[in-house]
TrEMBL record:
It comes from the Bacteria. The lineage of its organism: Bacteria, Bacillati, Actinomycetota, Actinomycetes, Streptosporangiales. GO terms for molecular function: hydrolase activity, acting on acid anhydrides, in phosphorus-containing anhydrides; metal ion binding. It comes from Acrocarpospora phusangensis. Residues 25-225 form the Nudix hydrolase domain. PANTHER family: ACYL-COENZYME A DIPHOSPHATASE NUDT19, TESTOSTERONE-REGULATED PROTEIN RP2. This is Nudix hydrolase domain-containing protein.
Amino acid sequence: MGIPLPGEFGQRARDILAGRLAPVAARDAATVVVLRDDPLEVYLLRRKATMAFAAGAYVFPGGSVDPRDADHAVAWAGPSPAEWGELLRADEGTARGLVCAAVRETFEESGVLLAGPAEDTLVADTTGWEAEREALIARTLSFVDFLNGNGLVLRSDLLKPWAHWITPEVEFRRYDTRFFVAALPYGQRTRDVGGEADSVAWMRPQQAIDLARSGEISVLPPTFHTLSEMAAFDRIASVFGTDREIVTFMPQVVEVDGEMRLDVSR
């Protein structure tokens, strides 16, 4: 049962369970499953092998909340931060930061921008903002300043909350991550990678699952679980039309026959 935790991780798990070691705090983060139709596909990035967390793994766009993501100055369309707080079971400030981080990270890691010049419009072409995109990745530009400087409104109504995963306590880097889904906007296209990834791919969910099971690609448990859920749908409209209850889940460390394991079953 579960994933073996050998060597250093096994000992770390024992120390945490015994109370000899305190787990590191989990940072707020957002992840977005970007979808396109005909057939239904998901956008995945392969993290660089040099990354400290999830090196070489295929992931959805996402990352930590920047403190500046909670800035009240951003022009906002769709459910309010207070309404998102109810959906995400978070306070209003945290919810604002999570939604803004979801839109920002999606733009940084795919070039897809869920924003427009008005509350009911979307930009059709984001290729003219590569310098700003690089500045966002480098954190020399805040997302709020990018949006306001270009007269853009954040479209929170284009996101659907999907899941809530917390990194296991045994990990050295931990994230308290809300998962969202979003459709690739009409006219926009994903672009070359930047920042933490070295390749990208559009895949059918079942294709990604099969590649993971065969060992051809590596995915983390939350990614695998989400891909399994997406494989049940054939259209984006079906994904957005499904009722979704957000349940917080953190894989637990267990000891089985003297071996430390990570239980990722739900």
